[in-house]
Amino acid sequence: MAQTPRPTHPLSIDEAWAFTAANAAATTFFFDFDGVLSPVTDDPDASQPAPAVPGVLERLAEVVQRVAIVSARPVSFLRSRFSSLERVDLYGLYGLEVWHEGEVVTEPAALPWVPAMADLAERAKAELPAPVLVEYKRLSVALHYRTAPQEALAVERWAHEQAESVGLRTQAGRMVVELKPPVDQDKGMVITEGVRDAGCAWYFGDDMSDIKAFDALRAREAVDPSFFGVAVAVANPETGAEVSSAADLTLESPEAVVQFLTAGLTRF
Ligand SMILES: [Mg+2]
């Protein structure tokens, strides 16, 4: 489908934008939220998108086929941070929730796990040391130890015990361990499905779960020689090196993501 040849990896940023602009009508931009569009905060409830983020996403959504946020947060949280965005699609809880035509659609296989997750959140609050922050997200429970890094091992051990006894899965992240229902859904699956009809896609991520999304872009390129995927890492002291090594390029911060997109938008 492409008039211009697909750029090769390692990437020339100039060629990447040129190809993207030439194929804008078949291009999707995917973004993780925490650490990519918003600086990570000690209290996960306090995080906000970097100031220019909503504006730049809306402008991007006007020139490409689709813009979507793919986060471990619930859709309700993402809606609270992006209430002004009309054209940006939202995937919450690694894709267990999707914001579609004005409502949240939940993966049916995950719904029976709601009571178990509520119960787990209560147990976590009672059993884990006080500085560990328990974030209850209806279909998952995140245990944050950013303000208590000395508890990392205790948190991981507790999470793995619970995963085994309740039958859940764990996802490690930046100073966090998350417990999720045993339902096959992750960011890689969201991207695999999301790029099925795309000619070009970009994914911006900063954490371990985002590497699965990068892999989905590579897999698509492997089966479709006309498809072009760009994996962008956002630097951080915890998982930065590993995510960066899996990406085509690395940006320094959420603010740098805004600047990068603002510069790219001049190409359309
Ligand atoms: Mg993140």
Features:
alpha/beta; Rossmann fold; eight-stranded mixed beta sheet; Alpha-Beta Plaits; four-stranded antiparallel beta sheet; binds magnesium ion; 268 residues
Description:
This protein has 268 residues and is an alpha/beta fold. Among the domains are: 107 residues, HAD superfamily/HAD-like (Rossmann fold); 71 residues, Alpha-Beta Plaits (2-Layer Sandwich), CATH 3.30.70.1020. 37% of the residues lie in helices and 21% in strands. The chain has nine helices and twelve strands. The chain has an eight-stranded mixed β-sheet with strand order 5-4-3-2-1-10-11-12, sandwiched between helices. It has a four-stranded antiparallel β-sheet with strand order 6-7-9-8, covered by helices on one side. Strand 11, helix 8 and strand 12 form a beta-alpha-beta unit. Helix 2 runs parallel beside helix 9 and helix 6 runs parallel beside helix 7. It is globular. The protein starts with 12 loop residues before the first helix and ends with a helix. Bound molecules: magnesium ion (MG). Magnesium ion binds next to loops. Magnesium ion (MG) binds next to loops.
Bound molecules: magnesium ion
% residues in beta strands: 15-25%
* Amino-to-carboxy terminus distance: 18 Å
Number of strands: 12
List segments where confidence is low: pLDDT < 50 over at least 5 consecutive residues.
none
CATH topology of one domain: Rossmann fold
Name the CATH superfamily assignment of one domain: HAD superfamily/HAD-like
What is the CATH domain class of one domain? Alpha Beta
